[in-house]
Known about the structure:
Number of helices: 9
Structural class: alpha+beta
Number of strands: 5
Order of helices and strands: HEEHEHHHHHEEHH
Amino acid sequence: MRLIRQLLIVLGLSFVAFSAHAAIGAPEAGVEYRVLNKPQQTDTGKKIEVIEFFAYFCPHCYAFEPHIAEWVKKQGDNIVFKRVHVDFHNLVTQQKLYYTLEALGRANELHIKAFNAYHIERNRLSTDADVMTFVEKQGLDKQKFLSIYNSFSMQAKLSRGAQLQSAFGVDGVPTIAIDGRFVTSPSDVAKSVPPRSSEQAQLAETLKVMDWLVAKAQKEKK
């Protein structure tokens, strides 16, 4: 009887410890994510806006791409997903490439190929000629591409991207903004994962934080 009582006490303590661990494991503002002091207006109605700030030259964005693509599919109608190519290192050609693909309705199809061009094929996409080499390889209509790539509306798109980058305080990529209020990134999440965790483990944990933030935003909208 005494042994049974001791076992029950141990099990009870284990449950309390587990519950405490689960509570601690919830994402924490100022650690795995931050809350903007000035929320940004969204135009996605009841759906949650998710913005990925990225860059084609970024190896971490490249590693994250297949994971976030799958995550977006799983979220389905819960979210409206957008991308903003940051203007780090004055690589405006890469920004213009993405926004032109987006305007042509080919971004989802050719996004990973642009990453591959930079990281595998060593096309740095740093000049207009580099970009056109990519365009030709993908069989895109060059004249149609250039009419968007060099348009006045492209300048407006670049300016809007810079405004969003500043508003969300983006100083590294990939960075994810959720519902115009919450910002997270693999580098933020890395603070709370075990030391020497692989990048893949950090990316997986980042997706969990994103799930939690989307659910939090949905609950607060209701």
